[in-house]
Design a protein that fits this description.
This protein is mainly β. The chain has one domain (about 1-30, about 50-434): Porin (Beta Barrel), CATH 2.40.160. About 15% of the residues lie in helices and about 55% in strands. The protein is built from 5 helices and 18 strands. It has an 18-stranded antiparallel beta barrel. It is globular, with a radius of gyration of 24 Å. The N and C termini lie far apart (about 55 Å). Mean pLDDT is about 85; it is low at about 20-30 and about 330-340.
Length: about 425
């Protein structure tokens, strides 16, 4: 079954790759003036921002992750100071473009100073004709219609639902965009093939090394509805297929949804006697949401997310129970059946099954210029824990942004947010754009 799915996906990929360049050769009359303007275009641009963000973090001394990192002698709260620089630039000349985004972070935390520098994006883009573009390098594909989560983002890193506007680090890929426009109900048809190699030192976090992976997205603008069909096949990750759409029901009301089928996933399950075991199965992930903007510019976003690859409540409770057992103290967990799931619990945002996301913001209430209060909440529907994030944003100048917000985690023992290392965080961010 697995080999059949793999071969079928490869066949679809190759067929579409061969057909779409032909479709891209429209018989419609081409505007030569626009082509000449594009050919004459030459620009070098750059920018970015400097950021300072002090934070006060209240620690949950009863949580598993606190005990794992601090033991019984750790602090009740800690201060953290982040200094960040983000650089962005592009160079475009005729049909060639170079783009990059780099990020540097210097952090003063409880354990001293730490620093890191990452290239988020850096790729070459060739516009071979007005309807065919070829890209090579490190980039994000930004697949999916959801705001907080994207089940169909097969070749992207997961978003951080706490901070949706933050840039994501991409993967090294070779991709193309092939587009054709039509008259009638079908306005646009586009195909985006992606090749993603995984080696020991290239895209190693994506999956198993030593393989070339194929992904693709077919896009339709049909009856004013954005529709995508997506797939990923290869040996680094299991084969998966997906579908998404978004549509404006009114000028101020948009609905969107995503659906993904993931094959041969390894999952952690709990037997009736409470033991953890690994099984392999096909799973479905899905998201449905809406965005509504009122006449007074109050913005609402609500989304329900089902993570088919996530942990169920029984599994998470069993993991925390075993992790907190006397035999599972730090440095002595060898042989514990929960070992394999510690990294996912630590490193993946929202690793369980069912979530509800809600966000609202109000632009310039009471005629206070450049001021936006906002509130975000993330509910774990499996165990009843939640994350509450109120915030205030003030931007008195176009190149200056200030944000004050709190992040409060609410949950009992053996719940996702109840077992986090912190139970609250207050942060003040200042960004200066240049």
């Amino acid at each position: 079954m697995k080999q059949w799915l793999h071969l079928s996906a490869v066949a679809v990929f190759l067929t579409l790759l061969s057909v779409f360049p032909v479709l891209a050769q429209e018989e419609d009359e081409i505007d030569l003036s626009q082509i000449m303007k594009a050919a004459e275009k030459k620009s070098l641009s750059g920018g970015g921002f400097l950021e300072f963000q002090p934070s006060l973090i209240g620690l949950n001394r009863d949580s598993f992750f606190y005990q794992l990192n601090f033991g019984d002698q750790g602090p009740k709260r800690v201060g953290q100071y982040d200094f960040r620089v983000r650089l962005e630039g592009s160079y475009e000349k005729r049909t060639v473009g170079l783009y990059f985004t780099g990020d540097g972070l210097l952090r003063k935390g409880f354990q001293g100073w730490d620093s890191r520098a990452r290239l988020f994006e850096g790729y070459l883009s060739l516009r071979l004709n007005p309807r065919f573009t070829l890209d090579a390098g490190k980039k994000t594909t930004k697949w999916g219609k959801g705001y907080a989560w994207n089940p169909v983002a097969f070749v992207d890193r997961p978003k951080d639902p706490e901070d949706l506007l933050e840039a994501l680090e991409g993967f090294y890929v070779v991709s193309a965009d092939i587009t054709r426009s039509f008259q009638g109900p079908l306005k646009t048809l586009a195909f985006t093939p992606v090749l993603l190699p995984v080696l020991e030192n290239l895209n190693s976090s994506f999956g198993k090394p030593g393989h070339l992976n194929f992904a693709g997205k077919v896009y339709f603008l049909l009856w004013n509805t954005d529709i995508d069909f997506l797939f990923l096949t290869g040996e680094s990750r299991t084969t998966r297929f997906g579908f998404d759409f978004s549509r404006n029901l009114k000028s101020n009301l948009e609905i969107h949804a995503e659906w993904a089928w993931l094959t041969d996933l390894e999952r952690i399950e709990t037997s009736q006697d409470g033991r953890l075991s690994t099984t392999v199965s096909d799973e479905m992930s899905a998201l449905v949401g809406l965005r509504y903007l009122t006449a007074s510019e109050t913005n609402f976003i609500a989304e329900y997310y089902h993570n088919g690859a996530g942990f169920g409540q029984r599994e998470s409770e069993a993991i925390f129970e075993q992790a907190k057992s006397p035999s599972a103290v730090p440095g002595s967990r060898t042989g514990n059946s929960a070992d394999a799931v510690f990294p996912p619990l630590l490193g993946i945002p929202n690793p369980m099954r069912d979530y509800l996301y809600f966000r609202t913001s109000q632009k310039e209430p009471f005629d206070i210029l450049y001021f936006t209060p906002e509130f975000t909440s993330i509910f774990n529907l499996d165990d009843g824990s939640c994350q509450l994030i109120p915030g205030l944003t003030y931007s008195p100048q176009t190149n200056l942004l200030m944000r004050l917000r709190g992040i409060f985690l609410v949950g009992s023992e053996h719940t996702e947010f109840g077992e986090k290392q912190s139970n609250y965080r207050v942060e003040f961010r200042v960004r200066y754009f240049f």
